[in-house]
Design goal:
about 180 residues, elongated, mainly alpha, about 5% strand
């Protein structure tokens, strides 16, 4: 089991925390820490929060939750992923805590299709950390969440880029050190 406090901070860093609903880059209504209202519907969010959330007029853009509620949603999601990721990726339980957080982060971001990075997954299982990091950078996902294959935060800043999710998770899988804290 991962350090929940670090996992929360890592996902807030990567996803942000928004109390007001917004349209994500894929056109899905989202709230809290990457909670996809469009894909998951209203019933689950209302069950987790124990209250009616959807605006009476049906205008999702008016949906607002508190920071505490956003964290409750996040923790419900993490509970779910921590139960299911080991089923879909049994090698997960053999990873150190930092690398487990990388796998959870990617599953949180992309769902279980993240575990379908077949070649990268094989490299993780073989503990080929360099190959796994390269696999991250050679993916469509890297182009969606990252700036490219620069593994140095200093060099990224010098080129006018930020050290992003792909960079951090690649460094974490490569080194086993926490680059998200």
């Amino acid at each position: 089991m991962v350090n929940r406090s670090r996992m929360e901070k890592q996902l807030i860093l990567h996803e942000g925390l928004r109390e007001k609903a917004y349209l994500d880059t894929e056109g899905n209504w989202t709230i809290g820490v990457g909670y996809n209202i469009t894909g998951r519907g209203w019933k689950l969010i209302e069950e987790i929060l124990g209250r009616h959330v959807r605006p009476a007029d049906g205008d999702t853009s008016k949906t607002v939750i508190s920071r505490d509620e956003a964290i409750r949603l996040l923790n419900a999601d993490l509970d779910w992923f921590e139960k299911l990721v080991p089923i879909h990726f049994p090698f997960y339980l053999e990873l150190d805590e930092v690398r487990q957080r990388v796998v959870l982060d990617m599953a949180f971001n992309m769902g279980f299709k993240a575990l379908g990075f077949v070649n990268t997954r094989k490299m993780v299982e073989a503990r080929d950390w360099s190959g796994a990091a390269r696999g991250f950078y050679n993916s469509k996902w890297a182009r969606q969440v990252g700036d490219g294959p620069d593994m140095s935060p200093e060099a990224a800043r010098a080129r006018g880029k930020h050290f992003d999710r792909c960079d951090r998770l690649s460094k974490m899988i490569l080194t086993g050190l926490d680059w998200a804290a």
